[in-house]
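User: Hello, can you help with two protein structures?

Assistant: Certainly.
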Amino acid sequence: MLSKVLRCSQFYPGRQQASVLLCQQAFKPTYAYRRLRYSSTTHSISSSSLPSRLNPPVSTRPPPLEAPTRTSDQSAPSYYFQLGRAYLTFYKTGLKAVYTNFQISRSLLSRLPSSTTLPLAVSGGLISRAELQLIKRSRHDVARIPLFALVVMVCGEFTPLVVLFIAGVVPGTCRIPKQIQGSREKLEERRRRSFREGTLDSRNAGDRSVKDLEKNEIMHVGRSLGLYSSLWDQSRDAGLVGFPLGLLRGRVSREVVALEMDDYAIKRDGGVGGMDSEEVRIAAEARGLDVLGKNDGQLKKLLNAWLQAKEAHSITKLLLTRPSVWQKE
């Protein structure tokens, strides 16, 4: 079944069509996801039909991984067979979610006027924060299905081990807990190193647009948000080519626009206090804020501080400085 995505990608100009074909042929949505999908298309988009206007549905996040615990009298083959089944169930559920989210996202976008962009739809109240995040995460996941399918084909039962080293090819709904934890640890260490070893001057980090940022500032934001692989830094340090600056500036620009939309939607649709624990963690991480070792209360306070500082400063300044700087202002 996974081989079909490789064949169909030869006939479709975009990866999205191939991705959806794979999910559509291989998996049918579960009852819970079908009910969510159908309920999301029966009402006007202006009166959000998702369970919450603030928090996107759980189908946009990885499902629980119910890994078995090996008993003292259980043989190794029996245990690893059960473990393999648990991972298979996890990945199947995650791929079902990708297809379900794509269907909901497509329905939401089809109801917007053809000339309406996402920023206009958010500012005009046409879509909620929950719908905005669903659309964004669906686009991210659908684009990764073909390469992820190839990894599964090649690696088979070793996929859970391999994906720990290639997090960028895994759809968000298929990321195992160990992978999420490892990615966060690496990103936060990379962010600390960038602040420590960079040439940024926090005192002079004024409110500027992305196009006015200097090269070292663009590179710092890219590292802090994980917008490009750390292998590019290693390549540059070795005297080879680094990540293309123009391409990175475009990525940073798009990310700033996405954060602008999300900041506005959070405040409009209920505020940080109404956000789920994991949503607060995801939102903080998306803004270059450290989340490891912090409880829900600390993260909500930090995210609220970001939104308050945003009223006086640009997002670029907040991304170029530590919270200890803009929390005092």
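That covers the first. Now for the second protein you mentioned:
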Amino acid sequence: MTAEAIRAHADIDIQLRLPTLPPARSSGSYPLHLSNIPTAPSFVLSQLASVRNLLNQSLDVVDVSTWTGDAHNANFIAGQLRLLFEFIQEARQALKGGEESPGSRWWENPTDENIFDPPLPATLSFHLSIAEASLLLHLRTLFPVNPGTPTASFTTESLTGLSLRQRLGLAAKLPEHEESDQVFVYRGQDVKVREKVRVESQDPSLMAVMAKLSALEHSVGVARRSLSIVMGLDEEEDG
């Protein structure tokens, strides 16, 4: 699972029509396309990268147990099984998602704007993650808490992101969301979320990997318990 494979997996071609995001010129929507420029950064999902690293560590444990360590030493094998179980468990949890998953805090891990062509506007936060083996996309339009002191990347005009109809109060009211009253430090500036959109899509490949990891976790867990019985240990002593 290389960075290139992760990038290819996230084949993004989206046309956004959000009230708080001005459309591209001569278009009724704002396009989001992965850049084909050779120097463009790869689109890497932190959770997939974490799963890849954990699986590599799991393979290292198997190699050490098979070729390097003493396969006849029960304590050694018990320790290796414990490591293997923990790595597989962490990998499965990474695909399950949650607040503690790698890259879960969107404001601390902003997507590189140069991944897209044209680059992602400063008004927009694009956050793609994995939840229960499904792809979960959150789009947020942002505005500064202190609009009178814009930075180089956030200007008062650009972060407002309002059409003429909205400035005159003629547009429909935006849906409420749970982050509307919160302040986030995003790219070095205090911002609030004006509009938030959530899109979820089940992914058969991720679901298959999740199922295999669950089966492996169960198998290793059974092996650990069986070895503990042979060694005369209880679960607490086995760790």
